[in-house]
Design a protein that fits this description.
This protein has 173 residues and is an alpha+beta fold. The protein has one domain (4-137). It contains six helices and nine strands. Strands 1, 3, 4, 5, 6, 7 and 8 form a seven-stranded mixed beta sheet that branches. Strands 2-9 form a two-stranded antiparallel ribbon. A hairpin with a 6-residue loop joins strand 6 (59-72) and strand 7 (79-93). Bound molecules: zinc ion. Residues 73, 75-76, 78, 136-137, 142-144 line the site of zinc ion (ZN).
């Protein structure tokens, strides 16, 4: 089954009143900031949005976004696959007053003059937040640990005095 494409934006109030659910994919080529922050994005992004009205009559939505990306391991400089899994809950607001009155569990997000929130931007922001500050392989998968141990062995061999060197020098005298 072909998944629907995630709409760029939705009317958040109407979506909440309709308890709209969206299961959609977002074309990876549209996420320029995520492209810049990674070596590559492995697939289009799986997204899910559920709009709702809460007990206080606030229009809210929950969402998820997931995709695997390729990052550079900061320990060995080799590429590594990182699975981004974002989960979020927002409450669209119109002004600062509404924002200040929000319960702490909700992230405020401003909707535009048409009442719309930009879903593409939310997905990209949330995926960027899941990226590690310092990307690193698990230690057992990291090239650096091999490099470090073999490098250590070579160094040790070189430093160990060779008893035959001493003999050779004696013979020369
Ligand atoms: Zn590594």
């Amino acid at each position: 089954m072909q998944k629907v494409k995630l709409p760029i934006s939705v009317d958040s109030v109407r979506a909440a009143n309709n308890r709209l659910e969206i299961l959609a994919s977002l074309d990876k080529s549209l996420l320029s900031r995520l492209i810049e922050s990674t070596i590559s994005i492995q697939s289009d992004i799986d997204t899910y949005f559920a709009f709702d009205v809460d007990q206080q009559k606030l229009k809210i939505f929950n969402g998820k976004a997931s995709v695997a990306v390729e990052l550079t391991c900061q320990r060995c400089n080799e590429p590594m696959i990182y699975q981004c899994e974002a989960e979020f809950t927002y409450c669209p607001v119109l002004n600062k007053e509404q924002e200040n009155n929000l319960p702490d569990v909700y992230e405020p997000i401003y909707y535009d003059e048409n009442g719309e929130v930009n879903l593409h931007q939310i997905v990209e922001d949330e995926l960027l937040l899941t990226l590690p500050q310092i990307a690193m392989h698990a230690i057992e998968d990291c090239k650096y640990s091999d490099y470090e141990s073999s490098f250590g062995e070579i160094e040790e061999e070189q430093e160990r005095p060779n008893p035959f060197d001493a003999l050779a020098q004696l013979k020369l005298k």
